Structure formats: structure tokens, C-alpha cells
Amino acid sequence: MKFHEQLASRTAHGREYLTSAPIIRRALAGQIQREEYIAFLTQAFHHVRHTVPLMMAVGSRLPARLDWLRKEIIHYTEEEEGHDQWILNDIAAAGGDPSVAQSSPPSTATDAMVAYAYDTAMRRNPAGFFGMVFVLEGASIALACNAADRIQASLQVPNKALTYLRSHGQLDQQHIQDLYAILNRFDEDQDRAAVERCAQVMFRLYGNVFRELDEPSLAATAGRAA
Questions:
Q1: From first to last of its 226 residues, what are the pLDDT tens digits of the chain?
Q2: How many CB atoms lie within 10 A of CB 170?
Q3: The whole model's pTM is what?
Q4: Core-most of 23, 61, 165, 184, by most CB within 10 Å?
């Protein structure tokens, strides 16, 4: 069994925790509210804007045995540049205020997820960061494309309000194949263990990001932006 298959099997419980978040189920059922969608985009902005800095941090700390990863990280960095602006544009198109999203603090769960990512890059084995990539890109394929059409139908928002979801889902079809190729090149137990540990934690933390969207304070903030 290839490593990416082992990883999927060993993290199945965490994936279920993420995908069972109530707001995800409502989105897939076409029952999400505009304020909830804007709140989701706001938290997405708060973690996506760290993707490029995180990739750069990982690249700067790779040990010699993982020199081959630098080229892959450069490619990812180029692909991810500007995605945070996509999200701000979507917020505006959905009837929200991008400046509110930019000036608001991230939720506690989003803060924790970003902090763990930086901790992985700067203090732990930086290869572990690809566990986060596994979680975020896998979730994008599984959820983004399916949810986008239902969100648009229920909220009656224009296509330009779903750029992040639709484009991210489409891009990640290729990204996930590239990721599998990277994961399967990790041949040392320490690197595989670091990836799996990060993935296990990220499924939990990312699931908490979605669960916190049901807290009244986050919905109220999005409501003021709408």
C-alpha cells in the first residue's frame, strides 16, 4: 500500500470529524445562510493568507535528505499566490465587506490551526506540513465542488462570489495528484510519522474551524458585513 493510501486509512476518523461539521452538512443540503457563507470566507481568508509564508518557512528548514522537496515547494508557492485576494473578492460579490474580513481577528480555531502549522514548520519536522496540505486539498476536492452549486442555488449569488470554492476545487484535482506523488517519495519513518501526526491534528483543528462558525459571535460579525 502506498503511503498516501496508508495516510487516508489512518486518518479516516479525523476526516469524518471534519466532514460531519453541521455547517458543512447544511451547505451540502443547500441550507446555508448568506452570513454563514461570508463567515466561512472570512475564516478562509485568515488561514489562506498564511499559505505562502508557511511554504517559504518549510522550504527554509528542510534537511539535506529532503532537498528534492524545494522544487515542489516553489511550485506550490507560485500556485497559491493571490488566493487570499480571491476570497476577499468573493466576500464583496456575496454582499459582504472585505475590509471587515481583513480587520477582524481570526476565530480561536483558525488561530490555533495557523499556529500549529507554523509550529510544525519552525519547531517540528517541516516535512509534517504536508499533512496539512493533505487535509486542506483533500477537503477542497471532497467539499468545494459539491458545495459551490448548492450554495449558489440557495443564496442566489453570482458566479464571481464562488471563485475560491470553484477554482480551488478545480485546481486541487491536479494538486492532489501532485501531493500523492510527493507523499509517496517520503521513505523515512520520521518523515512519514511527522506527516501523519500533522494530518491527524489538522483534521481536528480544521473541523473546529467549521464548528466555530455556528457560534453567534461569528455570524453576527458576518451579518454586519453583509
A1: 999 999 999 999 999 999 999 999 999 998 999 999 999 999 999 999 999 999 999 999 999 999 999 999 998 899 888 899 999 999 999 999 999 999 999 999 999 999 999 999 999 999 999 999 999 987 777 677 788 889 999 999 999 999 988 876 555 567 788 899 999 999 999 999 999 999 999 999 999 999 999 987 655 555 454 4
A2: 14
A3: 0.92
A4: 165
Residue 130 and residue 185 in contact, taking contact as beta carbons nearer than 8 Å: no
Among candidate residues 211, 50, 210, the one with its CA nearest the CA of residue 119: 50
Instruction: Give the Cα separation of 51 and 174 in Å (integer).
Output: 18
Distance CA 206, CA 186 (A): 24
- Which residues are within 8 A (CB) of 86 and not within 5 positions of it... i.e. 6 or more apart? 163, 164, 167
Distances (CA, A) of 202 to 36, 168, 184, 197: 22, 19, 20, 9
